[in-house]
From TrEMBL:
Domain Fluoroacetyl-CoA-specific thioesterase-like: start-end pairs: 17-120
InterPro entries noted in UniProt: FlK, FlK-like_dom, HotDog_dom_sf
A Pfam family hit: FlK
Matches recorded under SUPFAM superfamilies: Thioesterase/thiol ester dehydrase-isomerase
Tree of life domain: Bacteria
Protein name, as recorded: Fluoroacetyl-CoA-specific thioesterase-like domain-containing protein
Gene3D superfamilies in alphabetical order: Hotdog Thioesterase (3.10.129.10)
Length: 137
């Protein structure tokens, strides 16, 4: 694992809200606004932008934590910007604070966690769990 980042470093990601991002459950649209689920997906991706630059051959990142506090709506056609701030790297786990805005409007805040692990150990862990054998990675 490479560690080129420091607390306070920032990565950003943005997209335009579409109907695919609406709050929809069991095939029913609840609200025609950006869903909390879509916010979580975007927050994880913003934090993963750090991870992608930290990985070395044979490594992968895996999510460990996601906290989303939804403050305001984002509507279809609006651009949401995710700003992930490198908070800490401890025991191969990166945590980021994330803020989501549409212009000046604060849409959400939260945190993400991703651990950098060996792809081989991760595959073995998944295989053991699928087979019903509890082992640790």
């Amino acid at each position: 694992m490479k560690s080129p980042f420091h607390p306070g470093d920032v990565k950003t990601y943005s997209f335009v809200v579409t109907a695919a991002d609406f709050a929809t459950m069991e095939g029913h649209t609840v609200h025609e606004v950006l869903s909390t689920f879509a916010l979580g997906r975007g927050m994880e991706w913003a934090g993963r932008l750090f991870v992608l630059e930290m990985l070395e051959a044979g490594e992968e990142g895996i999510g460990t934590m996601l906290q989303v506090e939804h403050h305001a709506p984002a509507f279809a056609g609006e651009t949401v910007e995710f700003r992930a701030t490198f908070a800490a790297l401890e025991n191969r786990e990166l945590t980021c604070a994330v803020e989501v805005r549409v212009g000046e409007r604060l849409v959400a805040t939260g945190r993400t966690g991703q651990r950098i692990v060996s792809r081989e150990k991760l595959a073995a862990r998944f295989a053991a769990l699928r087979a019903g054998s509890p082992t640790s990675a």
